[in-house]
Amino acid sequence: MTMKTLANDRSVREVSALTAAAALFRGLGDANRLAILRHLALGEHRVRDLTDHLGLAQSTVSAHCRCLFDCGLISARAQGRSTVYSLAAPELLELFVAAERLLAVTGDAVALCPVSGTQVAP
Predict the structure, then answer these.
(1) pLDDT tens sequence for the chain (122 residues)
(2) Residue 103 to residue 100: CA distance in whole angstroms
(3) Quick one: which of 97, 33, 18 has its CA closest to 69?
(4) Alpha-carbon span 83 to 48, nearest angstrom
(5) Domain check: are 106 and 75 in the same one?
């Protein structure tokens, strides 16, 4: 195997890893999905519980749970006629803590970002 082949293999793996990371952040990139994950950090909940807590429509919560489930971020188990959701990985809690620390450091810069932010800078 040549050095060029090794470099190309490494580059392909890096691009693949970055693509997966970007997909993860897109999955986390919705305030409603983050609210669902934060509530699931407290324990298992049914869609009805999440709907009541978040004040969202049942169809909205179900769609977000499906997205989070498909991304592998939450687990689901049947309980009677309901589905009970929980966090799939405790590492999500560590990610939330790290995000809170980063937001404390950056202040409003993220919210004011003209590309990703929710507000327009004055």
Answers:
(1) 665 565 566 687 888 888 989 989 988 999 999 999 999 999 999 999 999 999 999 999 999 999 999 999 999 999 999 999 999 999 999 999 999 899 888 877 777 777 777 654 44
(2) 5
(3) 33
(4) 10
(5) no
Q: At what angle do helices 31-40 and 3-28 cross, to 10 degrees?
A: 80
Q: Are strands 74-79 and 45-46 parallel, antiparallel or unpaired?
A: unpaired
CA-to-CA distance for 49 and 102, rounded, in angstroms?
Answer: 30
Q: How far is CA 43 from CA 24, 82, 84, in A?
A: 22, 16, 10
23 & 78 share domain: yes
Check whether residue 59 and residue 109 sit in a common domain: no
Residue among 62, 95, 89 nearest 74 (CA): 89
State how many domains the chain has: 2
